[in-house]
Amino acid sequence: MLLAVAVIAVGVITTGLIVSGLRTAQRENAEQVMTQRAEMAHAAVLAETERYRSLLEATATGLATDANLNWDDFDAATSSLDRAGLKGASSVAFVVPATDAQIPAVQKLWRSRGADGLVLKPTATGTEHYFSVFNRGLRSPGTRSGVDLAAAREPAQALVDARRMSTATVSDTYILLRDRNLPVARQQHSFVFAAPIWPRTADPQFRGWLVLGMRGQDFLNAVLASVSQGQLNGELLATNTDGSRPAVAHYFVPGDPDMERRSLLDVADREWTLIIRADSGNLPGAHSALPGLVLGGGIAITLVVAGLVYVLASSRTRAVARVEAATRELRQAEEESRRQAVLLAAVMASIGDGVGVVDEHGEFMLYNPAARDLLGIDDDVHDSTQWQQHFGLFRPDGRTPFPHEEMPLIRALGGESSDGVEILIRNAARPEGILISVDGRPLDPSAGAAGAVAVFHDITELRRYENDLAVFAGVVAHDLKAPLTVIRGHCETATECLAEEDGDTGHSLTRIMLAVDRMSAMIDTLLAYTTARDAPLACVPVDLDDLVADVVQDRTGHLPSADRPDVIARDLPIVTADPAMLRHVLDNLIGNALKYVRPGAAPRVDVIAGPVGEGWTRITVADRGIGIPDEAKPAVFERFHRAHADAGYAGTGLGLAICKRIVERHGGEIGVTDNPGGGTRFHFTLPLEEYAMKLRSAKNESRSDAADDEARAKLERALAERAAMENTALPGLSALPSAAPSGGDPAGTRLRSPVPRHHPADAE
Predict the structure, then answer these.
(1) β-pair partners for 688
(2) For the segment 391-424, what is each residue's pLDDT rounded down to a tens digit?
(3) Which terminal Cβ of the chain has fewer Cβ within 10 Å, N or C?
(4) Measuring CA to CA, how many Å separate 331 from each of 152, 685, 736?
(5) Which is nearest to 552 in space by CA: 606, 630, 620?
(6) Which residues contact 170 (CB under 8 A, 6 or more apart)?
(7) Per-residue pLDDT tens for 470-491?
């Protein structure tokens, strides 16, 4: 007991000495901490203001490179400011100068560049105005466009200084124009950063300013909230042009400050002052609980020892309880896994499409009954290189073995997704063969193992239906055009008989013939559209110079020499393509160039070619016509879309859609741009002659399909009947076009769509 009292006495004396020393050390530590925190606050405020200035200048520099700045450019350039987390920033605006006389022109210019509904509202006359034409709100809706910043002296002076010094400036503090309608209690001292926009040219012309509005209180609160950690008060003083030093903002924390630090900040072209105050009692190291800890040390040790004894005594019981709880959880997880597995198996069994899953080595982990039914073979083969022979996988031609590296599952194992890959399956269980479409995807990493999954769709009946539809389209076209041919022949005969007796009747018959021609052209166009996708390709080397000359002759040969338009073809190469299909593309594009001409202007067409990639060429058809509006360009290749439907130009809206199908069938691309000299430039790509072998192989594969052969035979018979009917010895039929197939291919007649000399059909 006495020893305990002695220990307590010694402990109290020792604790007192330690506390006295600790308090002296705490004061010194508080001074050091205060200095460090003040430096951190200074660095944070300086870094933020410098970041705002540099971001604003960088954005202004970017805008200076855009000679035709519009709203989309401003929106894209300032979107980074929206994402930059600019604390206290209210809005960023593009501001342009204007005198009283320039206001109407400036308003018209910026309305045309995307400032919809812009109304410039000058505050006075006889002075230079600074109008906000584009505006983006950052943390709140932006200032209305059209506001004259000359209404506020402070930002106006900052704009003048920025233009004069060609650098970013900061304004005197003031109440933002957008905040002046707020209650006084919510108004803040604010300022703006202004960055001039000078293009980097030999003779730069000033374009305006990029202005960033800042609320001082929001800015200081956001910066010091993290640095202060509830320990520092802050006050930010600005230096105005009149020498005054108003307080931009204050930041308060609970406490009675007894320590202070001041530092100067370079903010753009001004020098501001940051004052940091703190209550030393709130700073780390100012207080310590060590005396209480020493006094309570004995009690704490006793409690710790008692706690250890209790833990040792009760640890076995707790361990057993934990094992039992873990066992119950494991059983529940196992039961849930079993239930999920049963559910997955039921779902897979009920899916009508085939689903197969392989691991990273290409071994099948799972495939459902539908997949087994489609493949026709139940047993698996572990080597993926044997899939072709084991399951009987061929290309759609039914003869070419499907390459191992192009199989969707193999591509998916390499990380490449694929859709709609067509594979013919023919084996002992499927002797007649079925055509399937396969989609392959890499296995989701959440599955816990690498692999791939494929979905099989049986499209055999779909392809048969498409072939039947093509035959139906050809027969319908034949049945529709045959009576039209007879009608036109009789109308021509009647016209010749009545030309001198009854001029009105002859005129009516001529209109009937023109209507018949238009209906015939539309039937040809619709038939070409339905067959352009699936008609077999007959790819051979094609001399573009000869083909373009032939198309131009068909289009303009019936015109007098003085009325023929200028069509210039320059050094065109020899490409590999289907002549009939390629002729349709050129006939359509050149026909459009000759049709869509400004009233009173002479048509001019330039056909040029240039290399694009190894083994490919780009053919461009440029005209000086009426052009295509920008908003219509994305849809110009869609079915039944007509960019100038209201301008009185005839057409079906299918011509360019057919061109797109044909070019893509050849593996190329087609597009449209504006012609720099006025008009339109259509361009498409084709393989050069050295790629003929590859395209011929694709043609042979397509023609070898039995369904295609049957469809072609039916179409040839239908076209032969049509030719026989058109060549029937009726008076006046000599003016009708020939129905003979192009190059022995009935698809060539459909795609060429020739027209009578006396009434050239309009291309689309």
Answers:
(1) 575
(2) 888 998 888 999 988 899 888 888 888 888 889 9
(3) N
(4) 75, 64, 85
(5) 606
(6) 53, 158, 191, 192, 193, 194, 267, 268, 269, 270
(7) 666 666 666 666 666 767 777 7
List Cβ neighbours of 286 (8 Å cut-off, separation of 6 or more).
Answer: 26, 27, 29, 30, 280
Average pLDDT of span 244-261: 85
469: amino acid identity, one letter:
L
Reduced to 3 states (helix: H, G, I; strand: E, B; else coil), residue 201 is coil
Nearest partner of 237 among 227, 246, 224, judged by Cα: 246
Identity of the residue numbered 637: F
DSSP annotation string for 604-672: EEEEEEEE-STTEEEEEEEE-SS---GGGGGGTTSTT--TTGGGT----S-HHHHHHHHHHHTT--EEE
84: three-class secondary structure by DSSP: coil
Distance, in Å, from the CA atom of 270 to the CA atom of 274, rounded to the nearest integer, reads: 13
Q: Which residue has the higher pLDDT, 753 or 603?
A: 603
Which two three-digit tokens encode residue 122? Answer: 């000058």
What sign for the dihedral angle of Cα 498, 501, 504, 505? negative
CA–CA separation, 308 and 321 (whole Å): 20
* Mean pLDDT to the nearest integer, 670-682: 89
- Token representation of residue 198: 């000078």
Question: What integer is the mean pLDDT of 25-32?
Answer: 76
669-684 mean pLDDT: 90
How large is the C-alpha radius of gyration of the chain?
A: 42
DSSP per position, 438-479: EEEEEPPGGGSS-EEEEEEEE-HHHHHHHHHHHHHHHHHHHH
Total residue count of the chain as it appears in this document: 764
- Give the residue-averaged pLDDT of 705-729: 49
What is the maximal distance between C-alpha atoms in the chain?
Answer: 150
Closest CA to 169 of 212, 220, 134, 205: 212
